[in-house]
Fold this sequence. Notes:
The chain is an alpha+beta fold. It contains 7 helices and 4 strands. Residues 7-11 and 134-138 have low confidence and may be disordered.
Amino acid sequence: MDSDTPQQSLLDSLVIEKFPAKLWSLVNAPAIDSVSWDSRGEAVIINQCLFEKEVLSQGHCFSNSFQSFHRQLNMYGFKSVHGKGIKMGFKHFHNPNFKRGYPDLVHQLKRNTVESRLKAEADQKTDKLPHKNEKFLKGGKGSASPVPLKNTMNMDHRAALPPPVSQAGQEMPVHPLCLLLFIFINLALLQNLLAML
């Protein structure tokens, strides 16, 4: 494939964040037993011992230690899920942009850098700064009660969409762009595997 074609450009842009694409392929691969979705499709479950044997020791494009793999998950915003019902030796990880049936969210996973972390912390600090009219708003002569405004700028666009529903005997509709993204991610994984041979 010529690197100047639009398909290759799209493929290259999708491969920029390789870790999420590889993880998506693994969790959806029927041949891989060590990684799966939780029952709701909102978290990734990893059988650590089996994962080390089945994936890490086989050189499936990840590092060879689970600790390093776990660090990568953290860098992409995955959080460990703890609680009752989690079997010993199994690790659960959650990221709101990594859900079963939503391959189009994978491109939103970006590696956290020092700069992005510092920016997020700075944004949180500016949210906590006192209002310039705080004295006026708190009370006293001529005071007024503050009226909380609803912030509509941070609305989740997916909240307006119904979740995909699959009933027995019915196929779940797939958006063509989601299918295209899934195909390109798998092509990228295949290309990486072939390059390793």
